[in-house]
Amino acid sequence: TKGAAAAPIELPDPGAATPLQGGYGQLDPVRQGQFELLRGMQGPDVMALQMALQMAGYPVETTGTFDTRTEAAMMLFQMDAGQPASGVCGRAGALALDRRFGVPGRPGALGAPAAVDPMRVAQGVEQLHRAMAGLGTDEAAIYDVLENRPPAEVVAIAQQFAQRYGMQWGSLGQALVSEMSGLELNRALGALNRAFATTFGGPGAVAAPTPNARFAFAQNAAYALHRAMAGLGTDEQTVYRILGSLSPSDMVLVEGAFRRNFGWQWGSLRQALVSEFSAFELMRALQLHDGKLAAAYRGWR
Q1: How far apart are CA 235 and CA 35, in angstroms?
Q2: For site-directed labelling of 250, which of 73, 81, 189, 258 has its Cα 20 to 30 A away?
Q3: Considering the chain, what is the average pLDDT of its residues?
């Protein structure tokens, strides 16, 4: 690895009066009934909310700013959870996301799949950053984090990496794609993907609720789109057929399912289209994708 490990970073206590002051994923104020996130707010709690919405399958960027897309994703989650679709994340909405992705016995686990040591997470984030920042890439240091840490810890590291360095790279997966190539990239992405699969779908993972028919449909469509774009060549006609058959609300769910399952590789369905298509084919694909998402968001205003 490059250099010595960074000193552990203490995550601050969020406090009762200033919920946006807290560290990543800390939601004690929610349980005290003193928590509310709404459009225009910024901070780590907004980032944690966006990550949890992503993992629930809703299309939202992890920017740390509660924008109109975050509000729209929150409204869709509230409708699916049988709550008033206000778009504001209050106690009820946060606890519903906690129940979906939290760990029993660990208060304030929004967006965190398992109890992890925040100091080890912070050290892992900094080790990855040092390994990729500047000239050259320290592949051994990257493998050390992704392959030798518990899966839940790798997931937490990836989430906090996006929080700290999202402005530079976007997500951890995008950073790996930017800084590595060939077999080294495949090895790193494989380790990252296994951590997410184990944490959210494999042995010992937190059980997720059984999806309803719409979520199952979105999941199948996301996998079909991935098959059409993965590997050598792109099956443009299959992509056009799937995108053309989706309603605006279905496009929202498929975008979320694609991001949840393949975000480590491309970031989002739109980024996958930009990566795998070009010229007129890209224009046609984006017209289908963007037009239907825009129609869905207009319907939520």
Answers
A1: 47
A2: 189
A3: 72
